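Hi R.,

Here's the chain you asked about this morning:
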Amino acid sequence: MLYNNMHSEFHKRIRDNARGIALYAFVAPNESASVYSRTNNLNRIRDIMNECNPDGIIIYDVQEEKCRGNIERPFRFNKKEPAHIYSQFLTENLQGTNIITYIALPNENISSVELTNRMDEIIRRDIKTVVFVGGSSKVIDSTCDTIYSCAMLYKKKILDINAGAVTLPDRYIKSGWNEHDVLLNKTLGGSDFFVSQIVYNFESIEKLLRLYSAGCIDNNIKPARIIFTFALFAENKTIQFMRCLGIDIPPEIDEKLGTNHDKSYIEYSMELCICNWIKILDLKKELGIPVGFSVDIVSGNKMEYSKSIELYKKLENIMKELY
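And the predicted structure, written out as tokens:
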């Protein structure tokens, strides 16, 4: 009963436009991780929860993917434990924690039976808040347009599931994609909220918010909350990895950083994240779109880990002041 009440309150929080929302994002341990490594991973999350007390945490469903463009991947990919399994483990070991679980939908055509089995697995593990990722392909024996729309249809049948989707503002720059139309269609389809990829380019953010707001007004619908993800970089290797993931890091950042040491990297990325967050909150006031933030840790760099706590606290304080 306690878990269900907590879950219900978290749903209300996501939908409450009068309040912001603050999250921390993690990945599951490697699939082959030892008990010792798995325990360390849990303790790391517990330490951050105690230090920051976020509204909830995100568990990514990490899949191997090719780098965007002609960029070499700087970190080796290690297969991770499925997010839905790890989320269940965290629910049992971090009681009272709101968990948003990423669910990677397949990029190949599947049957409705297979999709239903995947959705049933979510329900069986008592996962209450999910973010569907991908799903642009077809369900071969269904009238749904895409796997994503079928997943959302299934979500509507299970009324106590809160379902969101990802948004990639940088697609405006990378591919000329009308990302606001994607958000609008998914809002109409039943998405309760969106979580962005890591953002650094405010031009893309502003374009997304303004055009999404206009689309919601034209269709007479309430905009869904958009949670923007921020992450620090302490070295060029992390910047390279972000670009590998399709994140637009403006080239002038390279020019300003030059050959400075790690501390300068961290300080500069901290300044950029804070500046963009303030601008987002200003736009939120102008447009009336509810927003939130999530802090991610991209690599195993110790400085990025320790400074991410400082970033979280600064973003949260700004949100309390300006929201």
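The longest strand covers residues 225-231.

Let me know if you need anything else.
M.
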